[in-house]
Design brief:
mainly alpha; Fumarase C, Chain B, domain 1; Fumarase C, Chain A, domain 2; 2 domains; two-stranded antiparallel ribbon
Length: 481
């Protein structure tokens, strides 16, 4: 059970809820939301409040003083009009991540929403009946369509993903609660969290696979020495050098004075990715509880400081840029991933037959795995084109820019899947080379290296020409951890 208090939420907890863990609201979070609602109501009595007493977007100058007289509320009309999306339906795991992020944001007590809606979100998550959300809708300025669609599902106006019965159906939705519910980038943030956490595990394992390649090609550990780490340009690069040095220490005499870049620059390659992953982690950790609603509800009814602040923090500019920078770090590393795979196929670097084949009779061995890795790299490099360079003007010019963070985070998930393929190919090739060289995990002092080598040796040992799809599927699961 994950407790949502609106103050802290580990990214690993978001993943746990995405994977099926239940949630509960902390009592203090409910109190905070009650106070926020009272403050918003008091403020709306003395000044216009966007979305509560006015229209939205280009309709922000329209007063809603008479909008709720007779028929459906303006809030219901807002939810229905904003719910349109298109494209493929997102998977249940991604939607659950969105729901728990939105719940955490609401629990921060900055939206002025009725706490009963947050409680309905809890029921929705715990029932595992989730809305059907499609991929096209958000542009990095709040996931209005996804959350409006969620509201329609709660109201029983849209069927859930894959069918199912709602635990409790809402019968009404007040105007005051419509914009506060949908004014969030919870889907974009949830997608980014799932991808960031996947990449964290994946890059840890890719690092270990690269160390296996280093050993299989008798790399020179001077490039990873403490002296080199001491003059590294960033702490992350220094830490990566220390990590690699610990893994390959005592692996044997180096074959060269200076290795190819794909071995010599391992600290820079993996250190830069670790640095960007850490920065994205820090930003996401803030966003899951930031409660940067628009308008932001301030003050407290108890001391008469009720107010709101209209702002643009919902535009996920920093998130888009952080994701883009991580994508660039991963994309830039791909050349060295492919080069290590290439050199593992080269007898000059391993002392084995070309393409790690069974013999020298012209067998292809792992030849085609290099092509598969190259195809995956093509996807990664295409994803590395910065999404944050895009812009658009919408809503009669009322919104003249967008971060397209939603595009960036969707690309990051695609990158993670492609990188798993690249790392898996390297693991297969490095493990095969080490097995053919007669190396054994017990030779090495590093527990981490032994663990990865043992994992690699789980792969089939038959080096004759055969269908390698099964090997690759196994290796992908291994590197995903």
């Amino acid at each position: 059970m994950v407790v949502i208090d609106g103050l802290t939420l580990d990214l690993s907890d978001v993943v746990a809820v995405a994977d099926g863990e239940h949630v509960t609201l902390a009592p203090e979070a409910v109190v905070r939301m009650v106070e926020s609602r009272k403050s918003a109501e008091a403020t709306a009595l003395r000044r216009p409040v966007y979305g509560r007493s006015t229209g939205v977007g280009a309709n922000r100058t329209v007063s809603l003083s008479e909008a709720d007289e007779g028929g459906d509320t303006h809030g219901l009309k807002l939810l229905r009009s904003h719910a349109v999306d298109a494209g493929r339906a997102l998977d249940r795991r991604t939607v659950r991540a969105m729901l728990v992020v939105r719940l955490s944001q609401l629990a921060a007590g900055r939206s002025g929403i009725n706490p009963s809606i947050a409680e309905k979100l809890v029921e929705l998550i715990n029932s595992d009946v989730v809305p059907e959300i499609r991929e096209f809708g958000g542009i990095g300025t709040a996931d209005l369509q996804a959350l409006a669609g969620t509201a329609l599902t709660l109201l029983g106006e849209r069927p859930p993903l894959g069918g199912g019965k709602l635990p409790v159906r809402l019968t009404e939705w007040a105007t005051a609660d419509a914009l506060p519910f949908i004014s969030s980038s919870a889907l974009t943030i949830g997608q980014a969290i799932l991808a960031q956490q996947k990449l964290s595990r994946l890059l840890d394992n890719a690092t270990s696979a690269a160390a296996l390649s280093f050993i299989a090609m008798s790399g020179n550990s001077e490039a990873l020495s403490p002296a080199v780490a001491a003059v590294a340009d960033t702490q992350e690069v220094a830490s990566a050098a220390t990590m690699f040095h610990g893994m390959v220490q005592g692996s044997g005499e180096p074959a060269r004075i200076q290795d190819p870049y794909c071995l010599r620059t391992l600290p820079q390659i993996f250190g830069s990715q670790a640095e960007e992953l850490a920065r994205l982690h820090a930003l996401l950790s803030r966003l899951v509880t930031a409660g940067n609603e628009n308008p932001l509800v301030l003050g407290s009814p108890s001391d008469g400081t009720n107010d709101v602040a209209h702002h643009g923090l919902f535009q996920m500019t920093n998130l888009a840029r952080r994701v883009d920078t991580l994508q660039l770090a991963i994309g830039a590393a791909c050349a060295t991933h492919l080069r290590r795979i290439d050199l593992l196929c080269d007898p000059k670097y391993t002392g084995l037959h070309p393409f790690l084949a069974e013999d020298g009779s012209g067998q292809s061995g792992v030849m085609m795995l290099e092509y598969v890795a190259a195809a995956a790299v093509g996807r990664i490099r295409a994803n590395a084109v910065p999404a944050s360079l895009q812009t658009v003007v919408l809503s009669l010019g009322a919104e003249e820019d967008a971060s397209f963070a939603s595009v960036a985070t969707a690309q990051l998930e695609s990158t993670a899947e492609a990188l798993a393929t690249v790392a898996a190919v390297e693991l297969i090739c490095a493990s095969r080379a080490l097995r053919l060289q007669g190396r054994r995990p017990e030779e090495f002092a590093s527990a981490r290296l032994r663990t990865m080598m043992q994992a690699g040796f789980i792969l089939p040992s038959d080096v004759g020409d055969r269908d390698l799809r099964g090997d690759l599927e196994m290796a992908i699961e291994l590197v995903k951890g």
